[in-house]
Amino acid sequence: MAEAILEIQELKKTFGGLLAVDSVSMKIAQGGCSCIIGPNGAGKTTLFNLISGYHPADSGKVFFQGKDITGKSIEEICRSGIARSFQLISIFPRLSAYDGVLISLLAREEKTWNPFSPAKKFFRDEAMAVLESVGLADQKKDIFSGDLSLGDQKRLELGMAVAQNPKLLLLDEPTAGMSPVERVSTMELLQGLAAQKGFTVLFTEHDMSLVFSISDWIGVLHLGRLIAEGPPLAIKGNETVRKVYLGETE
Amino acid sequence: MLLGKYGKGTLGRSLIVLLFLLLPIGMPKFFIFLLTEIFILGLFGLAVNLLVGYSGMVTFGHGAFYGLGAYTVGLLMTKTGIPFAAAMFVAPLTAAAFGLIIGFFCVRLTQFYFAMLTLAFGMLVWAIIYKWESFTGGDNGLVGVVLPSILSSPQAIYYFTLGVFAVCLAIQWKIINSPFGYTMRAIRENPERVRFLGIPLTRYKLAIFVVSAGFAGISGGLYTAFTKGAFPDYASWAKSGEGLIMVLIGGMSSFIGPLIGSAVLLFLQQIVTTFFKYWSIVLGFLLLLVVLFLPEGVMGAGVRIRFLSRPKEGENSNPGPARKEKR
User: Fold this and answer.
1) What is the DSSP string of B260-325?
2) Is the Cβ of B196 closer than 8 Å to some Cβ of chain A?
3) Whole-structure pTM value
4) Which of A129, A208, B69, B253, CA to CA, is 20 to 30 A from B235?
5) Mean pLDDT of chain A, nearest integer
């Protein structure tokens, strides 16, 4: 295994009486695509929320590039190089796609305090390049992003996250709601961007063929516990995984 | 819709400026007073709109900052020998300073709770002004503000107000088109996402609150100059409501909307009160009509009338920027 970019130790989170994430430990290797799978309610999104600082963990530690980021604020964690997207699309519905990407770039370069220079003058080429890379460089970039199709909104979200120049990108079901064709093209796009910009991807996904074709590492969550981890082939052959997860869906 | 063209083309802009410069010539005093008040209240509306329309933070307590600006000018002019120009300069600073303290607590809350806390602080400021008779004159207010002789005529006050308004307008235009202004809109649209872009949300909300309070302070200061006095009403929650009403009438999505709102409000008030005692009833109906038929205000009226042209399925049906859309 290559050097770990993210290391999780005994992470635990309960909501009321519900144990959402139960003593999960894992190491995510630098580079490539890693995937967390598991049935609905397995704790995938909660795990992402714990990593990105959205929820405080009850116990356990998260290390990013060797540094302890447990308990840090969302903003700090983001600044350290972790970007994320959301299962439910989270964009700026009444701003254009161009403006969404622009704000992401302005935030990255810490220009957002500037109250006097016209914002449109900043990062014109880079914003266009980002939009180009996610296929929104045509007239789609100028309409309210809330009016874009679901697939385009997901692509915009990806673009906004990529514009942050993250070292680690957490994607919570990046292809939810897309057609099978769109899914494949989106994930290919993602892999291309990851290779080009050199960030590591950790994502969750329900489309198993997609997961097994692009992941370098897969972790399986079930009822908040990590029940298996390893390369796709090992997961495919794993008895427990077949029983609790794959067997049910296929 | 003349003002809708503001900012598009030098000709239109120059014509509007010329119009406002020539307006008071030969006009009756009453009309000049009305115009002056429209600009002052319009400036207050613009300040409120920075928070409400651009940043999605609905405040019920901005009257406090208007009042603080008004009393700053009033107190400085009546209790110290500070010249008027300096007092006008201190007014936004005082309001902004109080904005920093009050905002520090308020911006930690969101939506309804934010609105309620601003209301509470607003009423607190009003109560202090009202009760602290020895300092503020209490119910009787502060009277006897003497302006420099150059501002003795209604025209002079009008031009002074117009000048201050224009400068504030220019600064706000700069702000809302800057990276900071874009961040304001992003906060309105989706504060959570803003945090995940690494932007310290609370600090930005506080900064917006302070800037908005400062502009409200300027308008309050102008009003003291206009009325030659300061009264507890200036800081009341009714004043805060007026700010919101102007924003609503003019249209939150429009930069200049609050000024239109102020004009509509004050003109109508003048006309209605001539014939009819109960202005609030008319205002209530007006608001009802605006909310039902012009959800984007007067400035958005040309775009869409809600009940007549229903947006097609899948189209964004609520383009008013301050409406929060949860996806």
Assistant:
1) HHHHHHHHHHHHHHHH-S-HHHHHHHHHHHHHHH-TTHHHHTTT--TTTSPPPTTS-S---TTS--
2) yes
3) 0.88
4) B253
5) 89
> Which of B54, B180, B182 to substitute to test the interface with A, most A CBs within 10 Å?
B182
Range of the domain at A49: 1-79+202-250
d(CA A222, CA A244): 8
Ordered by where they begin, the domains of chain B are 27-300 (1.10.3470)
Determine, yes or no, domain membership for A87: no
Mean pLDDT in residue range B47-63? 94
| B35, B166 Cβ separation under 8 angstroms | no
Taking the CA of residue A239 as centre, how many other CA atoms within 13 Å lie in the half-sphere pointing to its CB? Answer: 0
Q: Are B247 and B49 in contact (CB under 8 A)?
A: yes
- Which domain CATH number covers A209? 3.40.50.300
Check B178 against A116: CB less than 8 A apart.
yes
Instruction: Give B126-138 pLDDT, tens digit per residue.
Output: 999 999 988 888 8
> Is B197 within 8 Å of A95 when comparing Cβ atoms?
no
User: How many CA atoms lie within 13 Å of A185's alpha carbon, on the beta-carbon side?
Assistant: 12
Query: What residues form DSSP beta bridges with A204?
Result: A36, A172
Whether A194 maps to a domain, the answer reads no
Chain A interface test: which of B108, B199, B201 (most A C-beta within 10 Å): B199
Min mean pLDDT across A73-87, B216-230, B252-266, B300-314 is at B300-314
Determine, yes or no, domain membership for A159: no
Residue A95 has pLDDT above 90, yes or no: yes
- A160, A98 Cβ separation under 8 angstroms: no
B237-250 and B279-293 helices, crossing angle to 10°? 40
% of chain A exceeding 70 in pLDDT: 97
| Segment 142-181 of chain B within 8 Å of chain A by CB | 174-175, 177-181
For chain B, the first-to-last Cα distance in angstroms comes to: 34
Does any domain span residue A103? no
Q: Percent of chain B, pLDDT > 70? A: 89
Counting the structural domains of chain A, the total is: 1
pLDDT the model gives residue B321:
41
> What is the pLDDT at residue A246?
58
Residue with tokens 């939506």: B111
Q: What is the pLDDT of residues A151-186, one digit of tens each?
A: 889 889 999 999 999 999 999 988 887 888 888 888
- A119 vs B177, B204, B321: nearest CB: B177
Tokens 């540094």 sit on residue: A67
DSSP alpha helix (H) spans, B132-200: 133-136, 154-176, 179-189, 191-195
Q: Which amino acid is at B259?
A: L
CA B89 to chain centre: 18
